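Re: export button greyed out
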Amino acid sequence: MLKGFTRKFKPLEILSEEELETIHRGALNILETTGVRVEHDRALKLFADNDCKVDFEGKRVRIPPWLVEESLRKCPSSYRVKARDPKCDLMIGGNTVYFMQGMGMKYLDLDTWEPRAATVKEHRDAMIIADALDNLHMADGIFFYMDRVGIPAPMVMLENLASGIRNSTKVEHFGYELGCEKFAIKMANELGIGLDVELDSAAPLTLFKDPVEAAFRYVEAGINIQPTSGAGMGADGPATFAAAVTLQDAELMAFITLAQLIRPGIGLSVQHGLGVTNMRTGNSRFGAVGESIAGAMTNQLFRRYRIPTVTTAGFTSDSKKIDFQCAYEKALGALISVISGGNLHVFHGGVHAELTWSPVQQVLDDDIAGWIGHLLEGVEVNDETLAIDLINEIGPIPGYYLNKEHTRKWWRKEQFIPRVADAEPYPLWMKEGKKDALALAKERVEEILATHKPKPLTAREEQIVEDVLKQAREYYKKEGLISDEEWTVYMKTLESAD
Amino acid sequence: MQAEIFENLQKAVIEYDVEAASSWARRAVEEKADPTKALDALTQAIRQVGDGFGRGELWLPDLVGAADAMQSAVPIIEEELRRTGAKRVLPGTVVAGTVFGDIHSIGKTMVCVLLTADGFDVIDLGINVRAEQFVEAVKKHRPDILAMSALLTVFASEQKKVIETLKKEGIRDEVKIMVGGGAISQEFSDRIGADGYDPTAPGAVKLARNLIGK
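Workaround output, generated via the alternate export path:
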């Protein structure tokens, strides 16, 4: 199992117990009074069979507070997700913190700083790098590079999942769209791996048909889910933090109630991502401090429920370039997310909004994750680390510590050494071509691709992946979701990629 | 009296007061104020708010708040206009929706609200709209503009499908097509043969006006 990082100190708390209780009660009130719109007949019936007031025509479900609280109690406080290599299994929850690949639909061209569709090779390279990075614990082959050259839309998520499974041994994050979950479940079951699956509720107070259908499929198959909510504050959610977090709590608790009614005890975490609305353009402000404030509030709230949280503040920035703004927005968002108690942070590779992604950013983010992780691990205070005897032995100048056994033993544990930060003295820096972190990260990308070889699939595993992809391709073609023209380009793309 | 009514209609829009706007609209009808002039007064007010937005003094919630106030008054006055046999001159009709597979709503809703406030007749098809539903709506409503949104790249190609279907049906040239959403770029818009793209909601209104030359 991957250890990840352990947060060894009390998390940052920005709400009082009384404020938490007020938010919780407010959310229960919303669920009982207004309820949620659920666009799924089977779910409506399931809620009705479990003492909820259901208006079948209006598709409205009002959930009694006792049922919500009982459902919260049924959620395990942690759960294990199986990877292809058992060494990469994850145990999500408690004080453990993991980092996951972030989102960005397109490849970011670092010469023009403009987005474009990604090739098969670029996705493969991104996953190989993910496999190699020390501080990246969960792969997310699907939510970056959703715009793929030559791959028709209905197959993108499954092709990305397959690319992830083939090129990385880490746990895969997944989703749902156009029923692709049927094939993902089949692939995971036959390979004997788990998935951690993001399913959206939509603000305000709506559970659409597709994510609910996917919830039935995944939860019945025993696959872990991440109910998600992420309104834009002042747009599809209220403008105040208190109200936005309360509304989000209601949406997440409705989804949790549904999941626990489908299969009591299913392991889940909640992914929260309240967004700050840019009131000039209507877009979300991904690098805003508000995301961190809402995230810290939600972490605190769900820690009270003993349910793990997936955080997104700083998973991407508002900057178009890998630059100062990108770095501070991402680093601060990630820092606040995990010191306030987040368990899994969506992070590596995302550059601008949910639009661009870069392997170079992924390598840079791994340093930020390592830096933050080192902080989380805290300090050890005992006789050996205190070293009073040593301090007395060395005494004042000319005494020093560089030649001591204690230093040799401890300095490496006490320091975090970033892989691509520039830490050279000036003369050396000038001599070696004045390289900055971006230049060093580009070099590391090349180095990893030249040297890292992920554990390959066995012939049987490869057959499973290819068989499921084949079934999915034929299904979507038959359904008319892949045109003849798209099919021809798709087949050529796959052939040339091989 | 008429001057007072027009002044209060404008004040209601500028102060985002939905109730006052509808109340003064009803008053305008009762007092037999000229409905064309009442609509002009409302239009001037929303332009004033739009100018404030343009100068960076007002923000999106102000723009949408004023649009809501205006929309609470317009149907009342329009009805009076119809009753008197006069006709409101609209810049155009827009059919709008978020494409199939995509359940993101807020961006499309903002564009619809702002287009409506600018005088357009907007038919909002909602979210998760299939290509055939867009085509059907174009045939039924004969709009000047078809506006399609997609947040996720996976679904952006759905917009292309709509355009291709319109071509097959021989009605592509009867409607201007604008696209938007997180997944869309000018390059994508050009590639799929749309007529226009803008990355922001307020920009979409200007684009709509430009597309139909008004």
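The first helix of chain A runs from residue 17 to 33. The button fix ships in the next patch.
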